[in-house]
Structure formats: C-alpha cells, structure tokens
# Entry
Amino acid sequence: MFREFARHSVIVFIDFRDGSDRKFGTVPPAAYGGFFRDDGRKNIVPRAVITSPDGLEFWQYASHNDLKNSRTYRDIRDLVKDNLESGSSDTGGVDKAPPARWGVRGSDSTYIGNFVSLSKDGSVLTIERGGNQQAVRTNQLVDTAVRYAKLMAEQSKAEKAAELFQFEDWYSSTGVKIRAKFVALDGDQVTIQKEGGKDTFTLPLDRLADGSRKRAAELAAAVE
# Structure
C-alpha cells in the first residue's frame, strides 16, 4: 500500500510475507531503505515507513504493532507535524536514517546508498555508503528510482542556489550600481531580482560591466 497525503507525509506499508520485493518498484528509495535493518536483512514483521511529503527524506519507521499503540501513533503524528512546521527532517530518535535503496529493473536486487549527484544528462547516478561512492547507470534502475534521482538532483541544485545566490552589488556597463540577487543565466540573457522586491527582470548580458558578467557566469556554472 502506498499512500500520499498532499499536506502531511508519505506512509509506505508493505507486508513481506509473500516473499516478493517487486512491489518496491513504486516506492521512493528513501522509504525502501527504511524496511531494512542495519545489517541489511529485511525486517520480518510488517513495517510502515514515514517520509517527507515529497518522498525524498526518511523520517521514521514503525512496526504494525507500533502503529496500533496509541502513544506511539501520537508520537509519530507529532513528529510529522513538527517537521512540517519547522521544515526540518527530525528522525524521531532514530540515530541514523537507513541508506536509500535503488531498485534494479527486472530484478529483486538493489543498489544501496544515499544520493550524491546525477550527471547533467541524467545517465549516471552517484550514491554514497560508508564513505564510498558508486556510479550507477540509470538505465539499470526502475522508473521510480530514476524519477526520485531527478527530484533529488533538482532539490540539491535548489539548495545550492539558495546558498550561493545572495543579494550583492551589480554594475551596469555605464557604471550604475544596483543591489540584486542572481536568478539565472540563459545564453546572453541574465535574470536578477532587485533587493526589496519579489519581481525579477531579464536583461542582455552585455548591459552589465565586465566584472558583473563574469560573476553571472560564475554563479550559473556553480549550480550546473
């Protein structure tokens, strides 16, 4: 059973008793990993795994019996509520989130490791486990794993952009200074956002001074 709650979280519940792992083809990699113990063995009891609403981050897991316990259920409910309100990814007492598992097309096997990067053309996923990185061809993976790799790449790019793109001084080719934040560079068109406003505007790159043109190219390259 795979249920999505638009305003809350994603809960995945799978009963292993039929011995099949193929059903994991529709499960987010972060949730998939939550069904396994640290020693890599499957938990033999039915288990629910709770992730962030987008399915990208593991939040908590619980056995079927745990979920029938009103106190445990309340604790998990409060964890989800707190994470949504704070924007954090608290794992509710789990020391370390289990590594993600990336399903292999036409097989019950998986690649194990957390997302590091996705190549620009989307053909190679790099994952990490225990300090070791591994490159995986995405054409080997089930469609859900590929989709989540792309989502994680977009999230990583957005987080990097938010960190790098700050308000700073920009200069026009005529020496006029404005305080703005870089947004994007598309060919010879640069988009910036003026400080104190939400609107963005796009202008030809050659209307900026040499130093500002170089800065735009530097920021654009940093999030490629």
User: Anything to note?
Assistant: The chain has five helices and 13 strands.
